[in-house]
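Example 3.2
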Amino acid sequence: MTNLQSVLETIRMIEKENLDIRTITMGISLLDCIDSDGEKARKRIYEKITRLAKDLVKVGEDLEQELGIPIINKRISVTPISLIAAATSEEDYTAFAQILDKAAMDVGVNFIGGFSALVEKGYAKGDRILIQSLPNALASTERVCASVNVGTSKVGINMDAVRDLGHIVKEIAERTKDNCSIGCAKLVVFVNSVEDNPFMAGAYHGVGEPDAVINVGVSGPGVVKAALEKVEGESFDVVAETIKRTAFKITRVGQLVGEEVSKRLGIPFGIMDLSLAPTPEIGDSVARILEEIGLEACGTHGTTAALAMLNDAVKKGGIMASNHVGGLSGAFIPVSEDEGMIAAVNSGALTFDKLEAMTCVCSVGLDMIAIPGDTPASTISAIIADEAAIGVINNKTTAVRIIPAIGKDVGDTLNFGGLLGYAPIMSVHKFSSEKMIARGGRIPAPVHSFKN
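Structure, written as C-alpha cells:
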C-alpha cells in the first residue's frame, strides 16, 4: 500500500468508522513521595503530578489538531496509594484520594487511577485502611479511580478480601446513589492485574515501572466491523485474517501518537494497549462485530467462539505493529459502554451467565454491569469470586466492575451519560452464597502455578 493510500484509509477510518485513540495515560511513580507525615506526603504527590503532567492535555489536544486523530481521554495513573500512605499513621486515606482529585482537575485530565491495593496474598496495614476508605474516597471525589487485586495465578484468591469487597461495593453504591451509584463505576476488583494498563478504572502505575511513562490505548470496533462487512460469507480463515490486518493498521496509528507524545513531553513511551474498547455510540460496538460474524444477536450460541477468535486475531495483528504491547490488549465487553451489548441484554439474548462465559476468552471481565440494588453483599462477593476463579485458573487478567442500582430492579435503567453510557438492570441468581463467602481464608493457587 502506498503512503497516500495509507493516509486516505486512515482518514476514512477516523471519519466513517469511529477510529480513535481512546486514551493517552501518563504513569507516575509516587515512591519518592513517601513520608511518615501525611500532609508532607500529599504535598509531594501534588507537586510531582502537576509538574510532570502539566502539559499532557495540551500535547494531546495539539496532536489531535495536527494529525486529525481524535484522542478521547488524557489520564494519569499512579503508584498504588496503599503503598504510599502506609508509611503514615493515618487511619483513613480519603485525604490522599482528594489530593489526587485536585491534581487531576488542575492539570485537566479526565481520570486519575491508582487509589489501589494489592492484596492477593493477604492484607498489609495500608491495604486494609485503603479498602475501608473506598466509600468515602469515591463519594468525595470526581476523577479518582480505584482498584483492588485479590488474586493471582501464582498465589490463589484472597477470599477475605473478596468477602469484604462485597460490603464495600454495596456501601459505595449507597453513598453515591443520588448519582446513579457512580462510585461503583470507578472501582475495579482484579485478579492478575497488570502494572501498565492505560484504561480506567483499573489503571495504576506498578512498582516495576519507570519513574514516568506514556502508555496508549487505541480503539476501533467500528473499523473492524466495517472490514468484516466486505468479507460477508467468507470462511473463518478469511475473517481472522481480516481482523488481524485491521488490528495492525489500528495499532500503527496508536504507535505513532504514543511516540509523538513521548517525544514532546520528554517522557519514555511505554506500551500500546490493543484493546477494542467500545462506546455507547452507534457503530462503535464489539457486540456488533460478533453479529457481523454471523450471530443473530450477541449472546446466542456461538458468541463465545466468535469472541475468542476476535480476541486472538486482534492480538496477532497488534503485536506485529508495535514492539511494546502491554496493558490488557483484547476485546472489552462492558455492558453500559456498548450499544450492541445493551440491545442484546434488552432483547433477552445476553444474560449474566453468558457474559461470565464470554469473559473466559476476552479482556478483563464482568464490566459495567448494573444489578438490582437489593442484591446481598454476599452475592456480589460470589460474583467476584467466580470471575476471579476464571482468571486464576486460565492465567489471565479478569475483573469485576459492578453497580448495585439502589432503589432499582430488573427492567429499570441506570443512565451514567458520556462514555459510561447507560445500563439495563440485569438479574442475578436469587439463591444464596452467604455460607460459602463467610468461610474466608484463601483459595489455593492452581497446580499450574508451580513453575519455578
